[in-house]
Amino acid sequence: xxxxxxxxxxxxxxxxxxxxxxxxxxxxxxxxxxxxxxxxxxxxxxxxxxxxxxxxxxxxxxxxxxxxxxxxxxxxxxxxxxxxxxxxxxxxxxxxxxxxxxxxxxxxxxxxxxxxxxxxxxxxxxxxxxxxxxxxxxxxxxxxxxxxxxxxxxxxxxxxxxxxxxxxxxxxxxxxxxxxxxxxxxxxxxxxxxxxxxxxxxxxxxxxxxxxxxxxxxxxxxxxxxxxxxxxxxxxxxxxxxxxxxxxxxxxxxxxxxxxxxxxxxxxxxxxxxxxxxxxxxxxxxxxxxxxxxxxxxxxxxxxxxxxxxxxxxxxxxxxxxxxxxxxxxxxxxxxxxxxxx
Amino acid sequence: xxxxxxxxxxxxxxxxxxxxxxxxxxxxxxxxxxxxxxxxxxxxxxxxxxxxxxxxxxxxxxxxxxxxxxxxxxxxxxxxxxxxxxxxxxxxxxxxxxxxxxxxxxxxxxxxxxxxxxxxxxxxxxxxxxxxxxxxxxxxxxxxxxxxxxxxxxxxxxxxxxxxxxxxxxxxxxxxxxxxxxxxxxxxxxxxxxxxxxxxxxxxxxxxxxxxxxxxxxxxxxxxxxxxxxxxxxxxxxxxxxxxxxxxxxxxxxxxxxxxxxxxxxxxxxxxxxxxxxxxxxxxxxxxxxxxxxxx
Lengths: 342, 296
Known about the structure:
The complex is a heterodimer of chains A (342) and B (296).
Chain A: H1 4-33, H2 38-43, H3 49-58, H4 65-77, H5 91-126, H6 131-145, H7 148-162, H8 185-191, H9 195-232, H10 235-242, H11 247-284, H12 290-299, H13 303-331, H14 333-341
Helix pairs in contact in A: 1-13, 1-14, 5-6, 5-9, 5-11, 5-13, 6-9, 7-9, 7-11, 8-9, 9-11, 10-11, 11-12, 11-13, 12-13, 13-14
Chain B: E1 6-17, E2 20-32, E3 37-41, H1 48-55, E4 65-73, E5 76-77, H2 83-89, E6 94-97, H3 101-104, H4 111-122, H5 128-141, H6 147-151, H7 160-173, E7 178-182, H8 190-207, E8 210-215, H9 218-224, E9 227-232, E10 235-241, H10 242-247, H11 252-259, E11 284-285
Parallel strand pairs in B: 3-8, 3-9, 6-7, 7-8, 10-11
Antiparallel strand pairs in B: 1-2, 1-4, 4-5, 9-10
């Protein structure tokens, strides 16, 4: 008999695989149905008819979509996503280059959502009605109501231009040369033992990550607050108060944990949605990430790159969801134990 | 003569809201002697539960609440204590049992963890192992068959009756001198409620714990309480020993309350007035039940 948490994991992985296959079919078909001839776009206005025919043949563009999908799956199983018509390199190489930058950005933004958003929500609920609560509610409303690229521009103006506390753009100062091993600057600088480069990379990521995280911080804080306010009316909180449990403990443990479940779900969704939202922030901060790459290849109708990028983003989305599901099962014993019955 | 465990004299409570002031308690007085079980009986909204919240000092923290009058615990007026001193009483010298045991225990923490937290109120530095031992003993006292299993469970894994026993064990674990039972077990089956009430009665008798028993269920009150206060719309209307009051209800509201209990013999639901001028008649006190002198 498998432990319930393993069963849950196996079930989620299975359904995720099905979703991934569905997404690949869908994006594969959509990319080919939208108008425009990829071969013509790739070769430019001066290409001859023969050149275009040759490229179309190489890309199997004259076969039916089903047959093309067959070729795609065959290559995919060999770990080959095809050649990008935009960069003229294997799509896998492009993704390996651009994905780490975006992942780094998103992970830092996600941490900000959790480490800033949740405590703000808890403080707001614990001291509800006070000036601190009102201030937090106002600030988080601002965070939710403006899109992240607006914040990117504002933050850049305020803290990189008028008040040059942070670098204005890029991932790291050019004077550092770091051997790319994993592509993750935080890991590579540590592998190189270069702590000042690590600090420099961390310095560079603060503004873009914060701009990206702001709406998530706002959502997490507001949701945590409203859930906790509701939890505060539950008999078990009254019981905790009548037994004189320390107020801080009631807020940070007894009221927070039951209220955390919806917040976690939202953070998980935000986290995955950031993969797409990162584009404008990456554009503002000249961040060499996957979202920018994804938009560039869509504009060029670079079929292989579009499918590859979307597949990677979907896989990320699914992984984040699995992690969130496991976390919720860990926090909520009712879910954890109900797995046994199924 | 020692001071009564609880003495309430002329307690007023009002809530100040957008629509002006709403009076909830109109100067109630009651007392509970050491080891005595006293019931406060009335319909919902009569001010029973707010009285309990005031005794615990919780309602005083609500900004919209206006509380005046004397509440003295073991001869010391709560209003004269510091907030820290009042806080020290909670869960330690005064504890409380709630209406619905299922929702009064935190759903995401094991019983053992919550019990540990309760025991910390008396012994802040109690080690987890010692706490567990104490908790297991307390659960055994309330006739829970496998205390260690119960401690490792979550509230939703136990039955309502089990949870109620856990609540009783928690309430008595720190040997409080006053136990407030706010409609205990109203959410439970009648048979389970009867069992747990009997258990509670035996335990408080053993520990000489004074009890304020808040209820609308006259049948239960008759079995459980030594003395009864009947409360109607924030006023005490009748007060007497349980036997006297049930044998000879003198206030019109008490009589209506007694008449309102549906008979098991099947005479249908009795008809009584919702509101009657008679219900506002002055307080009736039975023989030998005068409120004690306030000293100090």
